[in-house]
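Re: beginner question about structure tokens

> Can someone show what the tokenized structure looks like for a real chain? I only ever see the sequence side.

Sure, here's an example I had lying around. Input first:
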Amino acid sequence: MKVLSLCQKLNFKLPVESLECLGDGSDGEVFTIASDKNTVIKLCIIYEYDEDCERLYEKTRSNLLFVMENKPSAYVRVHTHGYLGSSVRPFDTRMQKFIIHYYTMEKLRKISEDECRVFSSILSYEDCGIKKDYSPKKFKEILTGLRRRLDFDAEKVTLFCNNIEAAPIVYNDLHIMNIMKDASGNFKLIDLDRMELEK
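And the corresponding structure tokens:
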């Protein structure tokens, strides 16, 4: 996914000067910001498939506004967002419309290998729509077993999972690649492009 090069090709003006690419995925790319070492920018692209991309963008914009205003504990802090522009590309036998937008958010750090193993154990298959329902007792037993061989903060893992449940958000892409930590060691979900607000 080369959203930045597409922005440059289409002369879409970025709101910040970016430096280094930190990562990319199916929805966009994340970059450092030259003037702020604690904030990053994600450049996102929405392609029109079965649904109008203007409607998809509007839904994404509403979700980002919700996260900005309500600051749900399990989610990365979003500072700003905005529309950069739209265009079309050849796709199959037609021209496909797309929209590029951005949001800036707090810079987080990667979770450790042990923390990856913990979340792999408790969240496996969540991104496939298969939800594991653990009772609080069962959840505590699992974490106690994992602590015998892995180094992690069980209280922060429990708090993070409780915060996900408490937020009125359906997060449709829950896997270890989308979990990071803030400066205080609190776990946060990133990649907000596919979440939905509960009706």
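Each token stands for a local structural state, so reading them left to right follows the chain. The chain is about 30% helix and 30% strand.
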